[in-house]
């Protein structure tokens, strides 16, 4: 029902062309019927120049003529019925043929537009260098394709300028950060006694510089993931990457008395992609689970394979969250609040990087607020054939 409610251009063209063909058929059948019915009329008068009829045979001749006229009338009525039935059948056939022809002609007229639509859908931020390059006469369709090509060129230049700005700004900012860190180290390395306030201030500044350095690294990672080409693809196990990420945060997990366990059977969940990006993605998911947690809380990890999809699911407990706020966590610098173990860490780009890396590998990130409290993070990636382990 919904399909018929959509008044597409092809449907309108089909109705228009079908109605034109049908009206033409109706006019042709009407003219043919009128001509056929007019030609079957029988004259009731004797032709001029007929010889006179004798009175003796006049009565018999009149009866014979009346009988012949009755027969002719019956034949004329039968022919008229057959002609009308044939016209009705022909009209029905022409109605079907008109709709079919209208649809075929509408499809041929709209074929260039469908080609342009399909090509435009294939073009995304990762392949803005592609163009429609429509061929044919300089008509309205080619003008539309050329306009879309010009728009794609402007978008490509804009994305390239954005990538260059992010990369250059991040690299240029690292130089003064390194200089400031070196100045702090030199100041603290002097032989004279350093006041405790100065030492505390230096430690504080060094911590903030490290935070800014991590923020710049996140910017570079996000820019590379969103607009860069993936290279050095290899087959990796999501289970192994998740285990390595948990081992790397073992100290924080122990200090904050967090419990980490697997949910049911754990699959290797093989996928294919860039090792650096996938490692960073899973590190961010585990970091988010550790950071956004309560002291004495828990973390549940599961890796599964469902058909052609490999999935990593990380769940944490905690307070009941608002799903609308959770949906915004994939945007840069979005946080759930200060209910975290180490609220001083984190740039607000962690889950943004996770979503960008998953999308770059043809996967998705799904964030759900658990009804009983806490967060469920599910990363789905295309499954791959398991890598061969050397004997």
Automatic annotation (TrEMBL):
Pfam family name, one: HAMP
Enzyme class: transferase
GO cellular-component term (any): plasma membrane
The entry's keywords: Kinase, Membrane, Phosphoprotein, Transferase, Transmembrane, Transmembrane helix, Two-component regulatory system
Domain HAMP, residue spans: 107-160
Record EC number: 2.7.13.3
Subcellular location: Cell membrane
Recorded catalytic activity of this chain's protein: ATP + protein L-histidine = ADP + protein N-phospho-L-histidine
SMART domains: HAMP, HATPase_c, HisKA
Molecular function, one GO term: phosphorelay sensor kinase activity
UniProt xrefs under InterPro entries: HAMP_dom, HATPase_C_sf, HATPase_dom, His_kinase_dom, HisK_dim/P_dom, HisK_dim/P_sf, Sig_transdc_His_kin-like_C, TCS_sensor_his_kinase
Top-level taxon: Bacteria
Segments forming domain Histidine kinase: 168-385
Record field: transmembrane: 12-37, 83-106
Name of this chain's protein: histidine kinase
